[in-house]
Design a protein that fits this description.
single chain, 302 residues, alpha+beta, Alpha-Beta Plaits, four-stranded antiparallel sheet, 12% strand, disordered N terminus
């Protein structure tokens, strides 16, 4: 390999697969994977430790937790001067939806019945915020946009989620949706897919992930495993938002399937240690009264 090619390879390997995650994104990862598994919730100090390892400073983490209560994601319970956090109603709904979507992403064993869910929607020009929220929601549902005002997805099972999205945005009067087979007229399905989804950047991002994962050192300590595990889950969740998960009939060769297998392997490798370490951190962070309650609960279980 020439020097120039070696430099290019190093530069490519240094580029993150996706842009850095937001603190909000990390909160959903931590809450969904770890806080939801703690019956008594997680103490503030435990979350501060975990978020610090993920690159979020204490003051930003505290602000994030405070905002999460206003958004209905987390609830806080005081124990003297300490606070523990549990999933609130909206947070539980978000986590449950994320778990369902993650299971589909990781298994990717759906058979396609060759039917499409098609949406035609018009958003008034003076509702730019609504348009942005609509496009974000449609991306999450795996829709592509082959032509102005028309959105399509092979995921017909997501019609209820689409209905909730359109209703939440108040677009019922300017929307029309239907499910059915494409007919042999006009644009072929292969071209339709190419028009609806530009997956060039996503393909490159997946390949960077696979290359970097194969060459990165293994985490050693339980704390390193916990951090690596959360970073992995968050990266998977962000890939899920971008990947329409087209069936093999529409996308026979797709690097995303290899990436999903890598995510499955890493999750199986790190999950037990990561969950155990977080449980220990929660116990270590508890105030004396919280530790006493935990001890009593442990004795009752024993």
């Amino acid at each position: 390999m020439t020097h120039a090619r070696r430099v290019d390879a190093v530069a490519t390997s240094a580029v993150p697969p996706l842009p850095p995650p937001s603190a909000r994104s990390l909160l959903l990862t931590v809450a969904g994977e770890l806080v939801s598994e703690e019956p008594g919730g997680a103490w503030t100090n435990a979350l501060l430790r975990v978020f610090a390892a993920l690159g979020v400073e204490d003051h930003a983490c505290r602000q994030l937790l405070a905002r999460s209560t206003r958004s209905g994601w987390l609830s806080r319970v005081r124990d003297g001067r300490a606070v523990r956090w549990t999933l609130d109603t909206r947070g539980r709904a978000l986590v449950d939806e994320g778990l369902r979507r993650s299971a589909a992403y990781l298994t990717d064993d759906r058979d396609w019945d060759e039917r499409w869910l098609v949406l035609h929607v018009n958003v008034p020009q003076d509702r730019r915020t609504t348009r942005k929220r609509l496009y974000g929601g449609l991306d999450w549902l795996g829709f592509g946009n082959p032509t102005a005002g028309v959105w399509i997805t092979p995921h017909t099972e997501r019609v209820d989620e689409l209905t909730r999205l359109i209703s939440a945005l108040g677009l019922e009067q300017t929307s029309l949706a239907m499910i059915g087979h494409a007919v042999d007229l006009g644009v072929p399905e292969a071209e339709l897919v190419a028009r609806a989804w530009d997956l060039t950047e996503l393909d490159a991002a997946y390949r960077r992930f696979l290359e970097q994962d194969a060459t990165s050192p293994e985490p050693g300590t339980p704390d390193e495993v916990l951090t690596a595990y959360l970073q992995l889950l968050n990266l998977q969740q962000r890939f899920m938002r971008r990947d329409p998960q087209l069936p093999a009939a529409l996308q026979p060769e797709w690097v995303g399937r290899e990436a999903a297998q890598r995510f499955r392997d890493r999750r199986a490798q790190w999950s037990t240690v990561a969950h155990q370490r977080f449980h220990e951190i929660v116990a270590e962070s508890a105030p004396p009264s919280g530790r006493d309650a935990l001890d009593r609960k442990s004795h009752r279980v024993l």
